Structure formats: structure tokens, C-alpha cells
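Module 6 notes. Inverse folding takes a fixed backbone as the condition and produces residue identities as the prediction. Think of it as a translation problem where the source language is geometry and the target language is the twenty amino acids. Below is one complete input and output pair. Work through it position by position during the lab.
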């Protein structure tokens, strides 16, 4: 008997640069000092909620070419 394979469905969204910048501003307003936040992330000092914020920040910065 073979196991069931689950497949994640990824739905892309299209963002303008202005929308991506707004999302980044919203994230930063929840984060505070971005450099300190990134340093804590790189040294594995974030809780689960902050790690999700970090992942979102890194993704949006990638999309913005930063």
C-alpha cells in the first residue's frame, strides 16, 4: 500500500511596487529596529510569531530587490 502524498497549492499574487512598499512599512511598524530584529533572527533568538514576521520581511525585501 502506498502513502498519500499531500501537495501544497501555491497561488501567486501580483503586487505593485507601491503595495510591496506598504507591506514592508506595515511589517517594520510591527518589528521596530530592523537591524536588531534581523540580528536576533540570524542568531535564532526569535519566537514563532516573530519568525513568521521575519520570513515575511525577507520575502518582501527580496521582491523589492533589497
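Target side of the pair, the amino acids:
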Amino acid at each position: 500500500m502506498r502513502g498519500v502524498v499531500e501537495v501544497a497549492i501555491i497561488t501567486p499574487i501580483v503586487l505593485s511596487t507601491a503595495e510591496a512598499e506598504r507591506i514592508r512599512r506595515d511589517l517594520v511598524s510591527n518589528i521596530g529596529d530592523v537591524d536588531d530584529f534581523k540580528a536576533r533572527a540570524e542568531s535564532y533568538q526569535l519566537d514563532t510569531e516573530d519568525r513568521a514576521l521575519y520570513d515575511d520581511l525577507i520575502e518582501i525585501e527580496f521582491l523589492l530587490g533589497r
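Reference fact for the lab report: The mean pLDDT is 93.
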